Amino acid sequence: MEVIYEDNHLIAVNKTCSEIVQGDKTGDTPLSETVKQWLKEKYNKPGNVFAGVIHRLDRPVSGLVMLAKTSKALERMNELFRNGAIKKTYWAIVKNKPETPEGEWVHYLVRNEKQNKSYAYDQEKPGAKKAILAYRLIGRSERYFLLEIDLKTGRHHQIRCQLAKMGCPIKGDLKYGFDRSNPDGGISLHSRKVNFIHPVSKEAIEIVAPVPEDKLWKEFSFLV
Prior knowledge:
The protein is α+β, with helices and mostly antiparallel strands. The chain is built from 4 helices and 12 strands; from the N terminus they run ββαββαβββββαββαβ.
């Protein structure tokens, strides 16, 4: 487990695309339990250890996941998320270049529970939730483009769905229109960075998750 930030209240880890954040029907050990065990061993704690999940990532997505080490920190961080006071930045490797090098996309997402998939529409529909993201083209390789995503809302599969809607499916994302899977079974979407004011110390915090140790991520020539 790669820990990229820790203080008395919070811990952030760099998730791999094979890990689940919380337990599900697969029965695989979730990241939350791995973090609890890591804290228990590091601090030689008897009994139960608290590690509250602040936000989730889809299983095939890599990158930064934050957990709270106390219930009070979890409550305060949840409030920051509800108020939009935490800025989340993602990197996505996509098949096609967007029409403009930067911009903002607004769609209305309808979630299909049975398919575990969301559908994006240009106009509002019954049961739809408004989804907003800003993007910027920051790199390119021989075959792909690298987008930086500033997520304004947190909807089900939002980035995957919106990028596919705009003709830029994420590499490896078969569910949203990419033509083949990645060798590791993940998709090329990475939770890159968070910025927020610490709920206890009131300091400005920035946490950055290194990209996967993968040849593809290393191929990009950055434009900025």
